[in-house]
């Protein structure tokens, strides 16, 4: 399964373009722009599984840094600041990673 099975190519391109500049990433706006906010809980879970590259059941800090590449292979990496901001927003239990429930909450809050 790929991201384009769940989200529109146009929406992904538009969202990635909006945050192409370093230190411009805003996860709330990004999730809205790619259409993730409108997806069912099951579809959000599928997106999480795509972003969980090592299939550990969590999106760790290194995976967060390359989260945009999960949407398009030619996307940029997040800066260290953007990665830490995203981790802080999503890591509700303070374990240093984002689980499926935390990811679902992050999307719902966007």
Strand arrangement within the widest β-sheet reads: 1-2
- What's the overall geometry? globular
Helix content: 40-55%
* Major sheet: 2 strands, antiparallel
Model regions low in confidence, pLDDT < 50 over at least 5 residues: none
Number of strands: 2
Mean pLDDT, rounded to whole units?
A: 96
C-alpha end-to-end distance: 24 Å
Q: Helices and strands: which structural class? A: mainly alpha
SSE order in H/E notation? HHHHEHHEH
Oligomer: single chain
Describe this structure in words.
With about 110 residues, this protein is mainly alpha-helical. About 50% of the residues lie in helices and about 5% in strands. It has 7 helices and 2 strands; from the N terminus they run H-H-H-H-E-H-H-E-H. The protein has helices at about 5, 10-20, 25-35, 40-50, 60-65, 80-90, 100-110, and strands spanning about 60, 95-100. Strands 1-2 form a two-stranded antiparallel sheet. It is globular and about 35 Å long. It starts with a helix and ends with a helix. The relative contact order is 0.18.
The gist of it:
The chain is mainly α.
Which key terms come to mind for this protein?
mainly alpha; 2 strands; globular; two-stranded antiparallel sheet; 110 residues
